[in-house]
Amino acid sequence: MNAEIRKTAVWVEETHREAGRMIDPATRKAVAVAVIANPFAGKYEEDLTGLMDIGAELGGLLGDICVKALGIEPCEAESYGKAAMVGENGELEHAAAILHPKLGAPLRKAVERGAALVPSSKKIGGMGQPLDVPLGHKDAAYVRSHFDGVEVRINDAPRSNEIMVAVSVTDSGRPLPRVGGLTAGEAEGKDGLR
Predict the structure, then answer these.
(1) Which residue in 7, 31, 32, 61 is a FRET match for 108, CA 20 to 30 A apart?
(2) What is the pLDDT of residue 128?
(3) CATH 3.40.50.10540 fits 5-186, yes or no
């Protein structure tokens, strides 16, 4: 592996009750995080291929961790998202290099399919700062019940020369969705939209 990983972490969030109502089955979100060394911290580098390759490694690794944490088969994953926070000696472009060119394909393999774009966010931040991971249905962007997000934070990351990379996978949408639109059951996943 090209990524120099200092630590990984995984969380599963389950919502059992919302607005005074029981959620059965509970809605579940898993998020896996890798804290890695930023090989380009403190210097300008024109060629960010090294970070793109790290993104490919982390997409599969973190996606697999999420699926296993949920205890589901890959085909049972319903939504996904990705995010990265670069420490102060890095650039926003370092997060973009990890997230965009190559991370998506291995993540899609981890969740079987994934016709829709993987929602993403990126930021520069410091230790303990929250990172929001946006979520959307993996096969159809118009499934409104799966527009969501999850927040992660690690008390000692990212350090100034690190990048915190997060991937989230769910087995459901939001609890009690009622804003209309295409349902998960109606999604065809042919064009990534419907």
Answers:
(1) 7
(2) 97
(3) no
